[in-house]
Specification:
This protein is an alpha/beta fold and 281 residues long. The protein has a single domain, classed as Spore Coat Polysaccharide Biosynthesis Protein SpsA, Chain A (Alpha-Beta Complex). It is 31% helix and 20% strand. The protein has helices at 13-22, 43-56, 85-95, 141-147, 192-206, 226-234, 237-248, 256-264; strands at residues 4-10, 32-36, 61-66, 69-71, 99-102, 121-124, 126-135, 160-161, 172-176, 210-220. The model is unreliable at 270-281 (pLDDT under 50).
Length: 281
């Protein structure tokens, strides 16, 4: 058995068939965990089910992809695919190996006295790897309406991050099973991965682990509707403004499960228990 599992949540048969065709898949290999949202449970719960299946199967590394994420061209605009899904997964596994993180910074230019000439990094374990997206960036609804579906000038900040909070996209990410308690999406539309990421970052930084935003890229062909996204997002925008700092300043030593319980109650995966901002229906 492969030491990795690829997890994909889906609901539209035509879309998942298109996805499998794009990746050159004929049939469903034992390392591919496709989870259909048969009862409209939503993205978070369906992804969590796929992840649990992969973990229960004993895989060491879990790779999560959305069903509108296709292979990235070798050269943007060309027809040649960069790699197969197996190679893609292996690239994520490579990105999950310990990475150098710059941990000393200068205070002036030119560089001041005392700043090392060569040794600027410390190698750290990686809590999760994340890959970026060609074609359609992972924008929120307001940004999509302002910038358009495809941003003309979009910069990928491919780097390792330690100590800083950031929006982790759940469209294309991977982790080792040791981080299974952190890799639980919160069942809140459009913020399921973001809020998962804030909790994950809190725990990872306490364990002196970083995040590697240099995972393999995909071509994102957005399937969601921007107006529906706007309706989903507006309920939680105000809460999202401060939630990251609430999590960052939470007492040290809490597990991801304990943080979810404190933030969202017993049914942490239910949007019904997440408080909407005052005055927002």
């Amino acid at each position: 058995m492969n030491n990795f599992g690829v997890c994909v949540a889906w609901h539209n048969p035509k879309q998942i068939a298109k996805w499998k065709d794009a990746w050159g898949l004929h049939g469903t290999p034992d390392w591919l965990f496709l989870e259909q949202d048969t009862d409209k449970a939503g993205c978070a719960r369906t992804k969590n089910k796929a992840i649990k299946r992969a973990l229960d199967a004993g895989v060491h590394y879990v790779i999560c992809l959305d069903d509108d994420c296709f292979p990235a061209p070798l050269v943007e605009g060309s027809a040649m695919l960069e790699n197969s899904l197996i190679n893609f997964a292996e690239d994520h596994v490579t990105a999950l190996q310990p990475q150098p993180v710059q941990m000393i910074v200068p205070t002036s230019r030119p560089l001041p006295r005392g700043f090392p000439y060569r040794q600027h990094t410390i190698k750290m374990p990686v809590a999760a790897s994340m890959g970026f997206w060609l074609k359609n960036p992972d924008f929120d609804a307001v940004r999509t309406l302002a910038e358009g579906e495809t941003a003309g000038q979009f910069a990928f900040l491919q780097q390792t991050i330690y100590g800083k909070m950031f929006p982790l996209s759940g469209m294309n990410f991977a982790f080792h099973r040791a981080w299974a308690d952190e890799a639980v999406l919160i069942d809140v539309p459009r913020f399921d991965d973001i809020w998962m990421g804030f909790i994950w970052q809190k725990i990872a930084y306490e364990r002196r682990a970083c995040f590697n935003l240099q995972g393999p890229m995909v071509t994102h062909s957005r399937q969601s509707n921007v107006w529906k996204n706007l309706q989903d997002e507006v309920r939680y925008l105000e809460l999202n403004e401060s939630l990251w700092s609430t999590i960052y300043t939470a007492p040290a030593g809490l597990s991801a499960s304990e943080l979810r319980l404190r933030l969202f109650g017993e049914r942490f995966d239910s949007p019904a228990v997440v408080p909407a901002p005052p005055g927002v229906v």
